[in-house]
Specification:
heterodimer; A: alpha+beta; Aldehyde Oxidoreductase, domain 4; seven-stranded mixed sheet; 23% strand; globular; disordered N terminus; B: alpha+beta; Ubiquitin-like (UB roll); DNA polymerase, domain 1; 37% helix
Chain lengths: 780, 172
């Protein structure tokens, strides 16, 4: 097999070259099993007598009944991974995607681990697994057909050479074949040295460069393969995490402290005549009610909460004073920066004029539509099975093992569908699993913990609020010569399991910090300096150890930093009287980006002119019309967004009337699923731009209902137009998320276009818009 | 038990053993093992638990089971039967309700958690308004009490397309 290993592979690993071995002939059955050659896991040979046994080391199984089983620790997070992965494998294997069955996320049935943040993080592995397998199958067919490998063609799993044909299934019939492929890395483990307290986030990585099919020859990637789970979700057959039921299972509801820092003074009591089967469980500050009857657990927990007493704690600055609090923090040196400070500062000083601004956003929430739920069964021998919807099963396994002080081998995490949670569990924590394992350990029974909406909105980690100072210098020709930005935010890597913190059990130890997230679109800006400052969680010294935990959320870092960057570009375009699209095109030579801008502008029927709108009043007269745009480059993908809005000054309400979004994510895997992700990402992005804010007082989060943590409704959704550009020569880019981040800067720009006011904060709520309009009236 | 509650769920009379004040949601899920309706907020603020009671959408998380005594409850699992009955059949022949088929054809669900409630709302809307405009669809999902139907993944555009597709099927 012609395989090139990267030079980084140590000589000792050369033994890990792909190897095809026949384990024996069988009376019936037969399979080709693709397993992993890793020093850590070892590639254990499955028992030859049991052709249907599942080996942890098996990544892909091609069975003689035609089934192809692919096992990956990555999971479906609602963006179509379960449709894309079969396409990738099918493309390399030359089979139909519907012949592939995916097993996802179960730690005892999948080999590789890794987090499920998007297609890119898992695609490369599967592409190589498919390619290695294809090469092995060609070699088998070559022997069988007595024809050279390069004379073979394959279609739908049938190998042909001239008039001869043999199917994959016949190639493996009555044989047990093991293909061992080289991998590096390891599965997740708790690691105090890691920035988020966990190492092995990427899981195992397939090594080598097996020959892969050229993208220009793709037949399956690029088609709109449906998401395999949809029919079951539509007919009620899906088993969701919340549906897991075990014999003797107890239902639990948590009774959380009065504030994010309170400790327990006294636990309340329950009237046994009213709640005959309910039991109160206390471990340090972890308080819960369990009952075999869910409704009894619900009712009893409400009664118990009313007569349980906690210390008061007031260690938060309040959401109204968040920016002041961030401003007054004594920031250390930036943990990360890009570009030269000296050169950028010098270029700024030498510029003809400067445009500068400060942008900010409050804390926001992932806000899954289903609050987190988990079922745990701690067995008599101390081993644990957990049913979860975490986006990182191996990371969760490592955390649970750490909390219970047992080895990871004693923990099994089984993954099931549940409500989308947009990055909250990328590091394997922040769910109900900790509560469930602790309660199961104490009661000796399986326990199902269902968080309430209030639990979820008040006690889960949030995407932290932030402030960014940004400035650019322009020359006499209105060209930006230098740009400098400083981003300030609490950490967003705290994936500690909240139940473990409250119970005083071991947790991860994430380190405060931040990272430069923008990818630079403007190569014609000569000098730039970007720096980021991280601080610990607000209230990180709270007596119960919880405080205001920060965790990444969809399109992390870039959502925030690109908002500031693109808003400044819009301000600079306006300050120079330049059309915002023309202004951007002057500052980039990236033809891919320029093509996308033009295509998106065309779809939006963009008429070039500077902002603000010289004639904002439409036919109604009492409303203001505006339009704005922004760009983003992220994960080998280009994005452009154009917002058209109507502002009603009397109410402060902004209605986005149309949003046009363009994406060039390299090779588009699945146009329809990409369109779904673009349409829905726009909804989430508009929601963030107009509505979302986590409010808190001095001790607790106060936006704990859908009436106080507001998200976009269907009536508020605009007409959405999508533009897609697929390229065969740019590899894969990220498409499943990022659409959300394209909305806020475009909407803020449209607000300026309509009103002449630069909004430097989101969300643009009616109250905030009214305040901005009042400030201007007072000023004029 | 003479005063035992009986509710017709998806075409079958079911004797209910749960306490009468238990919300319908917990009875459907835990006693009758129907996993279509799901817990979202417990406060009638999101729509994930929606079911039809005598053809009208209710939020099962705040509806005591006692309030459904003698009534007809339809969950996601019962939509095929509802459709069959509307065509004069007494049992569903395995054909999905046009709303469900449209949800598949339009690839509506992303995570899918809210979609049972979304399909229930669509079934109710189309039973009362066979040809809703986009504005009417948006209005039904947003302004009808007790709360908007919320989708955090943001599938609203796909829902509108699917409701329109189902509308065409049901009229043909």
């Amino acid at each position: 097999m012609n395989v090139t290993l990267p030079s980084s592979i140590p000589t000792s690993s050369r033994a890990l070259l792909p190897r095809l071995t026949r384990r024996g002939f069988l009376q019936s059955g037969g399979a080709l099993i693709v397993s992993l050659a890793t020093p850590r896991l070892g590639a254990q040979a499955p028992q030859a007598s049991s052709s249907r046994s599942i080996s942890i080391a098996s990544w892909l199984e091609l069975r003689d009944d035609g089934a192809i089983i692919v096992r990956t620790g990555r999971t479906e997070i609602g963006t179509g991974m379960s449709g894309f992965y079969p396409q990738i494998i099918a493309e390399e294997l030359c089979v139909r995607p519907d012949t592939i069955r995916l097993i996802m996320g179960d730690t005892d049935r999948t080999p590789d681990g890794g987090y499920s943040a998007g297609f890119l993080s898992g695609a490369d592995n599967l592409r190589k697994v498919g390619a290695y397998t294809y090469q092995a199958l060609l070699r088998l067919a070559s022997k069988k057909l007595r024809a050279p490998v390069d004379s073979l063609t394959v279609e739908d799993g049938i190998v042909s050479s001239n008039e001869q044909k043999i199917s994959y299934t016949d190639l493996v019939r009555n044989q047990r074949l093991d293909l061992t492929i080289p991998v590096s890395g390891g599965t997740a483990s708790v690691d105090p040295k890691s920035w988020n307290g966990l190492s092995g986030l990427d899981g195992l990585v397939v090594l080598g460069n097996p020959p892969t099919r050229p993208m220009s020859k793709y037949k399956i990637v690029g088609t709109s393969n449906p998401m395999p789970g949809i029919p079951d979700k539509v007919t009620g057959r899906t088993q969701w995490t919340c549906d897991v039921t075990l014999p003797n299972m107890l239902h639990a509801r948590m009774v959380r402290p009065a504030t994010l820092g309170s400790t327990l003074l006294s636990v309340g009591t329950l009237d046994k005549t009213i709640f005959p089967n309910a039991q109160v469980i206390v471990k340090k500050n972890l308080v819960a009610v369990v009952s075999p009857n869910e409704w009894e657990a619900v009712s009893a927990s409400q009664t118990l909460a009313a007569n349980t007493r906690w210390t008061n704690w007031a260690g938060l600055p309040t959401s109204d004073k968040l920016t002041e609090a961030l401003r007054s923090h004594k920031w250390a040196t930036p943990p990360e920066g890009k570009g030269s400070t000296e050169e950028t500062v010098a270029a700024l000083s030498a510029s003809a004029r400067q445009v500068s601004a400060t942008y900010e956003q409050p804390f926001i929430k992932h806000a899954p539509i289903g609050p987190f739920v988990a079922v745990a069964d701690v067995h008599a021998d101390g081993s644990v099975t957990v049913w979860s919807h975490s986006a990182n099963s191996q990371g969760l396994r490592a955390q649970i093992a750490n909390t219970l002080s047992i080895s990871v081998e004693k923990v099994v995490v089984r993954w099931l569908d549940h409500a989308g949670q947009f990055g909250r569990t990328t590091f394997g924590g922040d769910g109900a699993e900790g509560d469930a394992v602790i309660l199961s350990q104490i009661t000796g029974k399986p326990v199902r913990v269902q968080w309430t909406l209030q639990d979820d909105l008040a006690w889960s980690a949030s995407s932290p609020g932030w402030v960014e100072d940004i400035a650019c210098g322009l020359d006499a020709n209105n060209h930006i010569t230098a740009l400098k930005s400083s981003f300030y935010s609490p950490q967003s890597n705290d994936a500690r399991i909240v139940g473990a913190i409250l119970a005083g059990m071991p947790t991860l130890q994430p380190k405060p910090g931040y990272w430069v997230a923008t990818e630079w679109a403007y190569d014609r800006i000569a000098h730039r300096r970007e720096e980021v400052y991280g601080m610990p969680n607000l209230g990180d010294d709270s007596p119960n150890g919880v405080g205001m935990r920060g965790i990444i959320m969809r399109t992390p870092g870039q959502r925030q930093q690109n908002f500031a960057l693109e808003s400044l570009l819009n301000e600079a375009a306006a300050a120079t009287g330049t059309d915002p699209i023309a202004f951007r095109i002057r500052h980039t030579s990236d033809q891919r980006l320029i093509d996308l801008i033009h295509a998106t502008a065309k779809a939006a029927e963009w008429q070039p002119r500077p902002s603000p709108n010289p004639n904002p009043r439409g036919t109604e007269g009492n409303q203001l019309h505006g339009r704005g745009m922004c760009l983003m480059v992220r994960q080998n993908a280009c994005w452009a967004g154009i917002a058209e809005i109507i502002v009603t000054p009397s109410t402060g309400v902004i209605q986005v009337t149309r949003f046009t979004i363009g994406a060039d994510p390299g090779k588009i895997i699945n146009p329809r699923q990409l369109e779904r992700c673009m349409l829905s990402g726009v909804v989430m992005g508009i929601s963030e731009a107009l509505k979302e804010e986590t409010t808190f007082d001095t001790g607790k989060i106060t936006s704990t209902l859908w009436t106080s943590y507001k998200i976009l409704t269907m009536a508020e959704m605009p007409e959405i137009k999508t533009v897609q550009i697929s390229r065969d020569d740019k590899g894969y880019g990220g498409g499943s998320e990022a659409a959300n981040a394209v909305c806020p800067p475009a909407i803020a720009a449209a607000f300026h276009d309509a009103t002449g006011i630069h909004s430097r904060r989101i969300p643009l709520t009616p109250a905030y818009v009214t305040r901005l309009l009042q400030i201007r009236r007072t000023a004029s | 038990m003479a005063d035992q509650l009986t509710t017709n769920v998806n075409g079958h009379d079911r004797a209910i053993t749960s306490a009468p004040e238990t919300p319908l949601l917990y009875v459907l899920r835990n006693e009758l093992r129907l996993s279509g309706p799901r817990y979202g907020c417990g406060l009638a603020q999101c729509g994930a638990c929606a079911v039809l009671v005598d053809g009208a959408e209710v939020r099962s998380c705040i509806t005591p089971i006692a309030a459904t005594a003698g009534k007809k409850v339809t969950t996601l699992e019962g939509l095929p039967l509802l459709w069959a009955q509307s065509k004069g059949a007494t049992a569903d022949g395995g054909t999905l309700h046009p709303v469900q088929q449209a949800w598949i054809d339009e690839q509506v669900p992303q995570c899918g958690y809210c979609q049972s409630g979304m399909m229930i709302a669509a079934a109710e809307l189309l039973a009362t308004n066979p040809s809703p405009s986009v504005a009417q669809i948006k209005d039904a999902y947003t302004n009808k009490p007790p709360s908007p139907h919320l989708c955090r993944c943001g599938t609203y555009a796909a829902i509108i397309r699917a409701v329109q597709r189902a509308s065409m099927t049901m009229k043909s």
